[in-house]
Amino acid sequence: MKLKFFFFLLFTLSSVPNFANISLPEIFSDNMVLQRNSEVKIWGWAKPGEKIRLSTSWSNKEISTKADRNGNWQLILSTPDVRGSQEITISGYNEVKLKNVLLGEVWLVSGQSNMEWSAGAGITNAEEAIAGAENDQIRFFSVAHRTAGNPQQDLDGSWVQSTPETMKNFSAVAYFFGKKLQEELGVPVGLINSSWGGTPAEVWIPAEAIASNDSLAKAAKMLPDERWGPNEPGLLYNAMIAPLVRFKIQGVLWYQGESNTSNSDYYEQIFSTLIRSWREQWGTEFPFYYAQIAPYEYGDNFSGVEIRDAQRKVRKLPKTEMIMTSDIGNIKDIHPRNKLDVGLRFANLALADHYGKEVDNAYAPQFQKAEKEGNKVTIYFEHAEKLNFDKANKKSQFELAGENGQFHPANVKIEGNTIILKTNKVKEPKQVRFSWGNTSTSNVFNEAGLPVSSFKEEL
C-alpha cells in the first residue's frame, strides 16, 4: 500500500509544472512613481520559458513576453499622463500586484553628504519643513549603502510616500526640489536618492572608464583612504547605480566635489566622464544638473576653488547646468544647513531649463568671454541682467596677471551686463581670475540675486 502511494505521489508531482515565482527588482514596488508620457521598461526574473503577462489599471491592453533561458524577462510599458493611484498586475505561474503606483516625473539624485543630508540630521527650519511634509504625490526611494566589485542586478531600497516620518530621513535638497516641482507642474514626483557621504566621484563611475584612461587612472591613485566610505573606482556605481540604469528617469541632480580636493586638477575630466558614462548606460542624454560646492576652508590655498572652477567648465557638456551655493554656504561648516534654497535653485533651474517654464531666478551669471584692449579687460557673462555688487562687500575680487603669472587686484567698473577691469600693475594682461580662494565668496550678483561663479581664464 505504501509503495502504491509513493508511485502515485511521484506521478502527481511529475505532472505538475515546476513552479517559479515571478520576482521583480526592489525598484518596482507599491507606492512607486513611473515616468509619465514615456515608454518604460519593466523587468524581472521567472522560470525559463515562463510566459509573463502584464496589465495595468490605465489600459485594457495586456502585454506579454517569455522569460529567456536564464530566467530574465523585460517588457516595454506605455505610461500616459494620468492622475490618481494606479495598479500594475504581472502574472505567470504566480501573480504580483503593484499598488498605489503614480505616473509623474522621476529624478535621480546622487553625490555625497550634502545631497544625502536630511532634515533629521539638522537643517535650517527643520521642524517646520518636517511638519509640512505630508504629501502623497511625492514618493521617495532610498538606495541603501552597498559596494560591489561588479555591476549588480538589484539593490536594497523601497518606495514610500512623503510624510513627516519619511521626509526627515530623506535627502533634504531632493525633498525641497521635488516639493517645488510637484507644486509647479501639478503632477506626482518620484525621487530616487543614491548618495553616500565622503565619497569621491570615481567610485560612482564604471571602473573600466577609469582604468582605460591614463589620466583618470593616475587621478584615482591620488585619492586618500577615508573612514567615511570607499575610494576605489566603480564600487558604488556597481552596487548603487548599475541596477537602476534600465529604470526610466527624467534627469539627474548631483551634489559632490568636496572629496576630490586631493586631485582637483583632474576633476573636470573626472566629472565629465561620470556624466557621459551615466548617459551612455541609460542610453539617453537626460538633463544633468549639479550644485557647485560652497566655499570652505580646506587647509590649502586653492583646491576648493579649483573644484568650483572645474564644475563651471563642465557646463559645456550638453544639457548640463550648475546652481550656485557660494552665497548660502558656510566657510566654517562643510555641511551648510540651508538646504531649502539649494533645493529651490535646483527646481527653478529644472522648471526653466527642462520644462520650459517662465522662471525669473533660474540662472546665475556665468563667465562667457573676455576681451582685452591694452591693459583693459572686458568680461562678458551669460545671464548677466543688471549686474551689481553686494552692498556690504564691494571690494574687488577680480585679479589680472601678466606674463610672469603674478596676480594683482584689478579696479572694477560695471557697465550694463559687462565688467571692465584695469590695473596699472599689469601692462599686458595674460590671465584673469575672480573670487579665487577656497573661502572666497562671490560678491557680484545678477538681477535674480544669484552670484557669479569664481573663475580663472587665459586671455
UniProtKB/TrEMBL annotation:
Keywords: Hydrolase, Signal. This is Sialate O-acetylesterase. Residues 1-20 form the signal peptide. SUPFAM superfamilies: SGNH hydrolase (SSF52266). Pfam families: SASA (PF03629). The keyword Transmembrane does not apply. Gene3D superfamilies: SGNH hydrolase. The keyword Hydrolase applies. Residues 105-336 form the Sialate O-acetylesterase domain.
